[in-house]
Specification:
Blueprint lengths: L8 H11 L9 E4 L3 H10 L8 E4 L2 H9 L4 E2 L7 E6 L3 E2 L5 E2 L6 H10 E9 L12 E5 L4 H10 L3 E4 L1 E2 L2 E2 L7 E6 L6 H9 L4 E4 L1 E2 L6 E6 L2 E7 L1
Parallel strand pairs: 1-2, 1-4, 2-3, 4-7, 7-15
Antiparallel strand pairs: 5-6, 6-14, 8-12, 8-13, 9-12, 10-11, 15-16
Helix pairs in contact: 1-2
Amino acid sequence: MTNSSPLTQDELKALVGQAALQYVVPGGIVGVGTGSTVNKFIDALAGMKNEIRGAVSSSVASTERLKALGIAVFDANEVESLAVYIDGADEIDGQGYMVKGGGAALTREKIVAALASRFVCIVDESKLVPSLGRFPLPVEVIPMAVQHITRRFAALGGAAQLRLKDGQPLVTDNGQQILDVTGLSIKDPLAFESNVNQWPGVVTVGVFAHQKAAVCLVGTAQGVVKTFTY
């Protein structure tokens, strides 16, 4: 018997959010990312909140959602390591390399990912790409460096645009700004991430190659597919 109506993107996100629970270690602290797909995971996590110590969150928004559901939130400085970090991606390739930062939380996401032994990425199939660069690359920057970094991306063939909110430059949870860069084709994500992170004024580039995903759970019309494991 087949389902005549395809699942909506929202339903696909709920599927992978639920599937990610299998990677949560009972009795431990789980790293929790940011975004609409992660919100589905947080909602599912509430069902096992009594089985975990709590979470380390990558954004104010996720922290508020976790606390509202009765899940304890620890500061990243309070934990030495995490067994797993669960987060979405704006795009992910077949090697587990990602572009993240559409929700402006890329710096904190990268910090929490660095604490974790394993990154479990949860996405719907629209986020799968053969190579990175389709989604505008978010880069968190110190405001005084915006024009300098814009020129550096232009030299690479990229067009950087300052992200706005309500007509004003968006301010991140860290008090910085975001450049969204289009026109890039990122063939070597590891080298690209290392290079851009060295530019003065860059806080974090949204390429997650050094903190790539070990597992990717993809919501598809056929259900949840695990695409790779390292």
